[in-house]
């Protein structure tokens, strides 16, 4: 229940920040914009609170529990949370927001895994089923409960993706000549040359693209071609061609800002980690929500036919 209030608070903050420029212009005749730092500073702490409340809510049983038993339920998740923080710090994570947020996500994953393991073990012991069979039977037995846990997993995965892409996004702007290179997010971008092509479709007059070779640790990762697209009817309004290369660990975006007669070209690169996991987490979240709304097969309504003679009245 508490994390629901936190979600509402996050929604109100985002809505207020989005509409604030409109209201400021109406009231003061001055448009005051609210940038990403506002949302990061306000929504970030609320996100961390929501993550830890979700983890705690999974540990606390529905029915009243003795303080000693309740405390024991926190021992293993607490120990694994501390271990994960030590591992993150050893890997070089120093940002306090990243440590707290990823720690909260790890706490959710740990307590959820324990609930799945306990339920699977109980069904396996009761029915003699295999591990996969017992795990799958959990969702038939109580889809609302275990589908809800899957929603928690989706929230944790999306939170890690949002935190990583916010804190560790790399942005680089470079002006290079053909043959020169620049570094961006651990990658070497080698600008080979500009190229011009005329697709002749959809009203496109000409496209000017920069051929960029992407390298890491001396190995070629691939080639990207950001540029500008010029239309015959609107030659003064070019459209950016954004080159994108995605993987499970990061998304790489390249933009061409401009060039001169000597082919001196300005290129902007963004490296955003774990963007793909935002979509994966969303899929897990949606799957858990669908399972949670599925009817349970554990208890089926029993229809009892009335066996009394027609017209008879109960005594």
Name some characteristics of this structure.
315 residues; alpha+beta; 2 domains; four-stranded antiparallel beta sheet; 8 helices
Number of strands: 10
Shape: elongated
Distance between the termini: 47 Å
Number of helical segments with 4 or more residues: 8
Give a short account of the largest sheet: 6 strands, antiparallel
Average pLDDT metric? 85
Rg for CA atoms: 28 Å
SSE pattern, N- to C-terminal: HHHHHHHEEEEEEEEEEH
Helix content: 40-55%
Count of discrete structural domains: 2
Secondary structure class reads alpha+beta
Fraction of residues in β-strands: 15-25%
Question: Could you name the ranges where pLDDT drops below 50 across 5 or more consecutive residues?
Answer: none
Task: Describe this structure as you would to a colleague.
By secondary structure, the chain is of the alpha+beta class. Helices cover 51% and strands 23% of the residues. The protein has helices at 2-28, 36-59, 67-73, 75-90, 96-127, 131-141, 143-167, 275-292, and strands at 170-176, 181-184, 187-197, 204-216, 219-224, 227-231, 239-241, 243-246, 250-259, 265-273. Strands 2, 3, 4, 5, 6 and 7 form a six-stranded antiparallel β-sheet that branches. A four-stranded antiparallel β-sheet has the order 1-10-9-8, covered by helices on one side. A hairpin with a 6-residue loop joins strand 3 (187-197) and strand 4. Helix 5 (96-127) crosses helix 6 and helix 5 runs antiparallel to helix 7. The longest helix has 32 residues, at 96-127. The radius of gyration is 28 Å and the shape is elongated. 22% of the residues are buried. The model has no long low-confidence stretch (mean pLDDT 85).
């Amino acid at each position: 229940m508490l994390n629901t209030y936190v979600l509402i608070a996050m929604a109100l903050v985002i809505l207020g920040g989005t509409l604030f420029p409109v209201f400021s212009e109406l009231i003061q005749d001055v448009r005051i914009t609210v940038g990403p730092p506002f949302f990061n500073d306000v929504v970030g702490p609320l996100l961390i609170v929501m993550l830890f409340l979700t983890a705690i809510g999974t540990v606390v049983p529905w029915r009243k529990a003795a303080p000693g038993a309740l405390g024991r339920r926190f021992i293993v998740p607490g120990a694994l949370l501390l271990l994960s923080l030590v591992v993150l710090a050893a890997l070089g994570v120093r940002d306090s927001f990243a440590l707290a947020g990823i720690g909260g996500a790890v706490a959710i994953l740990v307590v959820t895994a324990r609930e799945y393991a306990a339920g699977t073990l109980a069904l396996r012991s009761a029915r003699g089923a295999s591990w996969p069979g017992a795990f799958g039977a959990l969702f038939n037995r109580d889809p609302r409960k275990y589908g809800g846990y899957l929603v928690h997993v989706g929230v944790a995965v999306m939170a890690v993706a949002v935190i990583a892409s916010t804190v560790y996004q790399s942005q680089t702007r470079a002006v290079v000549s053909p043959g020169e290179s620049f570094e961006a997010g651990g990658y070497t971008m080698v600008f080979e040359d500009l190229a011009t092509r005329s697709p002749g479709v959809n009203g496109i007059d000409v496209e000017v693209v920069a051929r960029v070779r992407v390298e890491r640790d001396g190995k070629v990762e691939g080639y990207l071609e950001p540029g500008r697209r010029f239309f015959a009817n609107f030659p003064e309004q070019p459209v950016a061609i954004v080159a994108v290369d995605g993987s499970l660990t990061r998304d790489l975006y390249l933009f061409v800002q401009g060039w001169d007669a000597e082919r001196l070209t300005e290129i902007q690169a963004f490296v955003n980690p774990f963007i793909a996991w935002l979509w994966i987490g969303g899929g897990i979240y949606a799957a858990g929500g669908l399972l949670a709304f599925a009817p349970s097969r554990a208890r089926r309504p029993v229809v009892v036919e009335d066996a009394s003679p027609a017209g008879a009245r109960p005594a």
